[in-house]
Amino acid sequence: MKRKKKFLFPTAYTVILVVMLIVLLLTYLIPSGKYSTLSYIMEGGKFVVENPFGEQIELEGTQETLDELGIKINIGMFKYGSITKPVAIPGSYKGLEKENKSITNGIVSFFKAPVEGLYDSIDIITFVLVIGGIVGVVNKSGAFTAGINSLSKILEGKEKWLIVLITILIGIGGTTFGLAEEIIAFYPIVIPVFLAAGYDALVAIAAVYLGSAMGSMASTVNPFATVIASNTAGINFTDGIFVRIALLVLGLLTCTIYVIRYSEKVKKDPSKSLIHSQKEEIDKQYLISSKEEAPKFTLGRKAMLIIFVLSFGIMIYGVKELGWWFEEMTALFLGVTFIMYLFAGLKEKEFVNEFVIGASDLLGVALIIGLARGVTIIMEKGMISDTILFYLSKGISGMSGVVFSTVTFFIYIILGFFIASSSGLAVLSIPIMAPLADIVGVNRDIIVSAYEFGQGLMGFITPTGLILASLAMVNITYDKWLKFILPLMIMIGVLAIVVLGFGSGSGENQAATRYALPDFCKA
């Protein structure tokens, strides 16, 4: 009698390719369409309006132009570079003829999209590879192992507080300046610590990822989400901040308790771990064998860890205060790598080899990031994002109060799957959704909060986000993450609906905005 083969959930690569295929099919089923968009040209101080057919006209770069178009944004946000992406013009949606409908073109698009995604994501891919290289060097030097052994002794019996500390600190980073892609660099540090404490690698992934996801979901002053969305809605970014603070506090508390309960269960009985079958493989990757003698925590190894940790502080400061992005962050860690050579105690050839090996260990993570971007590229070329937004926004125009805020939240959950970029979703959707709040008598800050909450909740699981890249760090399959996270998502979702409901109850009736489109946008 033949034994049935056990179903093995596909790898992250296959999951993304399946999502890519589904999105490609949707571009054939969902009508194409676009909103007219408005961009600001710094040189000359002019607005350029582009209609759905690609035709452009120049308009005066004044507040009056924005008012006439029904875009409630202060002109200063364009002049000083706070808003750089094209902004959708309310009431300007037009359906378009689909181009390249043939099956052949679809197949070509399917295979080109991952390549284009890799090109488009080269900045973050380079960052990830350099991080992998420096981690490989620090690991080979024995600094991680010596530091972990020392930390394990200090935290013996108090390991759960490390979960609290990491989740809250990263949550603060997420809510203030959008700490997201940068968290990939933290996994090689925290995974060995949690393994040494008797937890599994899923606890480490959850503590870091949920802190970032929850912080981003309840962004308070995040310039890439709250500030851009509020400016696009024509309100101050502090409007509705108490609604977002409420969800931030309740959400981080819920996430922390949830992860601690799971971690304690795993510590008492390792067989309860959702990734128990991978324990030996992960321990081998991140912990030294019990037969090996733990390296001593020498002055050189301490110096390496101190430099490594300080580099993250410099990175966070640079992103928050100096406007750094991946080019600067990558350069920082590449420079730190050279400094590490002075303390690693490795020969030049061995040092370089370990850097290359460390980078290759994260090559899979880098490829996943590029593939995920390919999904977005297919959708952009299919021009279905605006269509989805148009029909969803029409469906809520007659609602009011709590029902309106709840349905808007779910709309942004849907949009969050298709548009992973927080700033991209803000400039596309907020100009369309904000006037609907006026019509139903709800403050515009509820739209901003619903946008953050909906897209943020989807960020817990969306394959086009960072979760698959995070899971790839320890080769955890997507189904195991879903099994772990779905009960928590339901709890956080209910919290979001309740908080939005209380916030929408304080709205005051506002008059709907009337505006005039340029004639060529009506074509």
Summary of the model, kept short:
With 523 residues, this protein is mainly alpha-helical.
Query: How many DSSP-defined strands?
Result: 6
| Largest sheet: number of strands, sense, barrel closure | 4 strands, antiparallel
Annotation field: number of helices? 22
The SS-based structural class is mainly alpha
Shape: globular
Helix content: 55-70%
Keywords:
mainly alpha, 65% helix, four-stranded antiparallel sheet, two-stranded antiparallel ribbon
Structural summary, described in words:
- Helices cover 65% and strands 4% of the residues.
- With 523 residues, the chain is mostly helical.
- Strands 4-3-2-5 form a 4-stranded antiparallel beta sheet.
- β2 and β3 form a beta hairpin.
- α10 packs antiparallel against α20 and α20 (445-458) packs antiparallel against α22.
- It is globular and about 75 Å long.
- Residues 507-514 have low confidence and may be disordered.
Topology:
Elements (H helix, E strand, L loop, with lengths): L11 H18 L2 E3 L2 E5 L4 E5 L5 E5 L2 H6 L6 H5 L7 E2 L5 E3 L6 H18 L1 H20 L1 H12 L5 H18 L9 H10 L4 H17 L5 H11 L7 H28 L10 H8 L12 H23 L4 H19 L3 H14 L1 H20 L2 H11 L5 H18 L3 H19 L4 H14 L8 H5 L6 H27 L19
